[in-house]
Amino acid sequence: MVGGLTLMVAALSAQQTPPAAGPGTRACAGGALDPSCRAIGTPAVPLPAGPTVFETAEQKIRVVVVTKELAHPWSLAFLPDGDMLVTERPGRLRIVRHGVLDPQPVGGVPTVRAVGLSGLLDVALHPRYAENKLVYLTYSKPTGDNRSTTALARGRFDGKALVDLRDIFVVEPGAGGASRIAFGKDGTIFMTVAGAGGQRAQDPNDPAGKVLRLRDDGSVPGDNPFVGRPEHRPEVYSLGHRSNVGLAVHPDTGAVWTTENGPNGGDEINIVLPGRNYGWPIVSYGRAYEGPRVSEVPWRLSMEQPIIFWVPSIAVTGIAFYTGDRFPAWKGNVFVGGLRTGEIPRTGHIERIAFNARGEEMRRESLLDAFHKRIRDVRQGPDGFLYVLAEDEPTADTGEGALLRIEPAP
Amino acid sequence: MKGKSAAVTVMVGLVLLAGVPFATVPAAQQPPNPQGGGGRGNQFSFWSLGLKPLPLPGEPMIFDTAEQHKIRVVVIAKGFAHPWSLVFLPDGDMLVTERAGKLRVVRHGMLDPEPVAGVPAVQVTSLWGLMDVALHPQFVQNRQLYLSYLKPLSGGARTLAVARGRFDGKSLVDVNDIFVAAPATAGPSRIAFGRDGTLFVTTTSDDARSQDPSEYGGKVLRFRDDGSVPGDNPFVGKPGYKPAIYSLGHRSQVGLAVHPETGAVWSTENGRMGGDEVNVILPGRNYGFPTVTYSRNYDGARSSEKPWQDGFEQPVVYWVPSIAPTGIAFYTADRFPAWKGNIFVGGLQRGRIAHTGRLERVVFNQRGEEIRRESLLTELRKRVRDVRLGPDGLLYLLVEDDVAGDGGETALLRIEPSTGTD
User: Fold this and answer.
1) Cβ contact, residue pair A345, B65, below 8 Å
2) A8, A290 contact by CB (below 8 A)
3) Domain total in chain A
């Protein structure tokens, strides 16, 4: 559900003609940034001061606001001492020390182009961070002419600032949108690059709309699936993705899971396998924001099927596997953030998915709907609690940006 | 998503035995690690999972919604035995079917304690019994009323039947079946009159019978108002086909409505787990079940190898995860200006979590393509069985707490625009 500004014009003209199903339809058919959507949705709800207790289907929980002083928080990473690094999309890296947000941002962060949904994006620690202090960031790197491309930078974190920061991979030709990173069990970096428009996601010679796999210095591993193949970028690991806003490596199996945003409908969870094609935009379960089906057919034999999908969209974001002990009934479940449901603003929530022994979905539950926040990320902390990043508005400077902690309630 | 097999009946029984629908699952029943193997999946345990039901408050409820800000939800009547369908009489009174076999009248906004007499004997199961009710298009003149129900047959057998009778204000008289499905079929059935005066009837099948043109299950049927088959039905005269069949390849269509402006026939169809659909029904078309579906079986496996193939109709709207869609209404009135042209669909539960029913609102563009969807009344935690547009331009809903037992709290609700003084 991210992007789609180009569809606004058509949607606005739709307002003037009566729809087949009746004449009352408003516009708001252009994705999250369509200004006509501002008239739609219920007002933002301020987070309560104290903890909020919710009865959920399998686990009674308490939600604690760690801080609500963040500006469009995008991702978080846990430092070995339990402190947290939090990216803010406008371009700051924040640190939460002993559960308190440090008013001083981390220094040394690269300059980002923070326009629309671009800016500073993901943060990840090197698997041997304890020894090398290396922190990785994805961001929208300004390239001049009011444009940007997705870049991966790494620097050494000295406790207050990133030092020796440099780009280790810059997406060329330029591609914007969301980008997540995660280290695989073999120490390689998986990096998602968005490719919503046109056919770029299907072009193996273009990094847009792909999952990439890199060494920790940005070079290409020799065992990537398309290494040495003409007209194929060697860094490409999988193709046919629209906008992978979530990425996580399963702590037990090492499998690489992504959450992928369809437009209106067709959000997905995929297990990403080397060399495979996940179909965008040839096949999709979604509709374009202004209504028509994205693809003539929703399925094709040669393309991978998602293991989970959503219709309507929930605008999937961060993904976490619950492997802790604090929520016994949630063990083995997957948690996914959602920005909004069915193209209605302020209907974000967390989605919980329970699986059977074969890894097949058994049920799905919506959590934290009552907050009416856009959930940008969800992570399991080293303490076994779940941590959540939430905001009110996609781009505006108004509203809350919060870090929440979900704990079991007695 | 609404189950209809014998296995489902067993599972519902387990809920009652468990007695604590909200209990934390014992460790032995915990779902295993995704992709991790190990553990054991318990296909029965999920029936005992869910939110706690909530009692309806004594006062009207005010909700803010995305486009029709501030709506008021009023409880008109409670105490139905699994309310299933409702219809408006010309004077504004309402008839409500109860799955348990009674037809009730709401007179001047009050539930008449005396049920309508003359309703046919109904086989009541945990999911079916007396189902839909519809008025003849010329009801004002002929007082003819139609019911779909599960008819007991000899030897404990049962099948779907459609009866009609004349409503004299207190009872049905001259009741006779105008259709009795043979070979027998069971499951939810809705009925609705088309603009040409023919009667559409949905039937249910959870297996390959949906594709079998010699079976009644899993179809939309079309009849004249006396139960005879119209000569222009798509398969009339085709060997091996029941001539009443209008469309095939359906699972369980718990909603059916004829668009008041276009005359198009819309149905809501329950997949198993995921793959709930809204379809616009066209003559002779095949809607795919079980050859192609977006659903999973209740044990988690995909129900079909592929979700779609050439030659089958695609739904206009579908849900993954399921909301267990029920009644469907087109909003064509003026009381909710921002909802004009929207469709409303009831939902029993979402994602296999009990007490997560809702009213779903779907918005279309000028080409009839979906552009957004909103969930309403999730706060009530009720199973929404039917939704109808009243002659007063307001929306009416039938709700219950539970599929099993007496249904817990059940009610007829009205949604009104809220005035500034609420």
Assistant:
1) no
2) no
3) 1
